[in-house]
Amino acid sequence: MGFQQLLRTAQVRRTNVLTVGAVNYMIAAVGSAVLYAFDRADAESISWVAVALGAVNGVLFATHLYIILASYRRAGVGITIAVTQCGGVLAILGTWLLWDEPMTHARWAAVAMLPLAIML
C-alpha cells in the first residue's frame, strides 16, 4: 500500500510517475543483488530460468504500473487498492480448485467477506 501511496503522491505533484516506479524497482533489484551476494550458500543454485522469470516479472511490473495509474485516475487510490488486494483471495480459490489445497476456516472467512469488502 505504501508503494501505491508513493505513486499517487508523485501523480499529485505532477512528477513522472513511471520514473518513480522505475527507481523503486531498481532499488529493489540492487537490494536483492546485495542480499544474494552476502548469501553465498545459494550462489550455485541460481539458474537461467530464474533470471528469465525475473526479467518477465520486470516486464509485468512495468505493465502493472500503466494499469494501476489508469485505475487511480478513474476510481481513486482506495478502491484500486481494495480490488488489487482481492487478488490474494482469488489465488487462494485457485489453489483450492486446481491443486486441491486444503481450505482452512480463515480462508473460507476471507472468501465469504470478499463481496462485502468490494461493496464497502
- Measured on Cα atoms, how large is the radius of gyration? 18 Å
Mean pLDDT, nearest integer?
Answer: 79
The secondary-structure class comes to mainly alpha
Q: What percent of the residues sit in helical stretches (DSSP H or I)?
A: over 70%
Overall 3D shape: flat
State the end-to-end distance. Answer: 18 Å
Task: Count up the domains.
Answer: 2
Uncertain regions: pLDDT < 50 for 5+ in a row? none
The SSE string, one letter per element, is HHHHH
Number of distinct beta strands: 0
Q: Assembly state here?
A: single chain
Largest sheet features: none
How many individual helices?
5
Strand content: under 5%
Summed up, what is this model?
The protein has 120 residues and is mainly alpha-helical. The chain has 5 helices and no strands.
Descriptors:
120 residues, mainly alpha, 82% helix, 5 helices, flat
How is this structure best described in words?
With 120 residues, the protein is an all-alpha fold. It folds into two domains: 1-75, no CATH class; 77-120. It contains five helices and no strands. The radius of gyration is 18 Å and the shape is flat. The chain starts with a helix and ends with a helix.
